[in-house]
Structures are given as structure tokens and as C-alpha cells.
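yo, Meiotic nuclear division protein 1 homolog is done. seq:
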Amino acid sequence: MPPKKGVSAAEKRDRVLEIFHESSDVFQGKDIEKLATKKGVISQAVKDVLQSLVDDNLVHMEKIGISNYYWAFPSEASVMVENDVKRFETDLAATRKRRAEVEAALEQHKAANPDTETRAQALAELNRLKKRAAEVSSKLEAYRDNDPETVQAMHNIAESCKLAANRWLDNTYSLLSWCKKRFAGNEAELAKFFEENGLDEKAEYLE
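structure:
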């Protein structure tokens, strides 16, 4: 005997929605669970099914106090279907109109650009030139490091860095000179302090 087929999500939605359309009444969640169980929808799934129907505006929900009340009327469902049909028909008409415009434009383009041998040769030459341009651009990129402007820019950056380094070395020597005067007799400790912090009083200026 084949295994019993489970109820799909779509079937659960249809069965729960039938409860509302058959009675046109207002229900609490616990009432829907009881009625849905009789229709083959397990109680644990009813909450999620109800929420999906509410999200799709197929069922209304209102919270009163601590309870949620649900309702849906058959007439509302038919109105929604009619509105959907009208919207789809409008979209279909717009799509058909756009397709006709594109086809007309394509025909005009074909008429203005017939598939002649001269045009085919021109397109082939254009593709060849595009390929050649890509190859040249690739080679230029490989030689960019040797470009005079690039080299000059790197030189300018290096010069700025050198000036900044020498300026900081000036500051270091000024600080060292002040410390020696301020803490005379503690030269060894000062030298150790500067050395531990990466400050070499024998450092030379960059040329």
C-alpha cells in the first residue's frame, strides 16, 4: 500500500479559507484550529496558514484585547480575483504594445542596415580594430611603471617623504637637546630611553 500523501501548503490554505467562505462568520484562532483539523489540516500548521492568508489579504485579522479575530467573505475573494484579472490584462496589453514597438523598430533598423557584403566586411574590420585596441591597452598598462608622468609622481612622493623624515629628525634632535639640558647628569638614562623608543641620536639626515 503506497504511503499516504501529505497535504500541500496550497491545499492547507484552500481548506482553511473554505472555513470562512462556508460560514461568513468571525472566528478566533482556536476556533479555526478545531475546524481546520476536521478538514485534514493539523493544528500546529494552522497558525502559519492563517498568517499567510492574512499577509495575502485573503483573510482579515483584528486584535481585540488578548485575542485575535479572523474573518473573510466570499464576495471579497471574487473582487480580488477580478482586480487581479484586470491588472494582468492591463499588463498583457502593455507588453503586447511594447513588443509591437520593438518589432517595428527592428524592422526599421533592418531596412536602414541591410545585410550587404560591404556591411559584413565593415563589421569584421570593426571587430578586428576593437581587438587590436584591447591588445594595445593591455601593453600600455604593462609599461605604465615606466611612464614619465608616473615616474615623476613617484619621485615627488619620495621627495615629500624624505623632507618629512628629515623634519621629524630635526624634532627628535631638538627634543634630545632639551632633555639633556633639563635632565643634566642623566645622559645614560636618556640615551636608553630614546633607544628603547626607536629614537637614535646618531641617525643621519636623508640626502
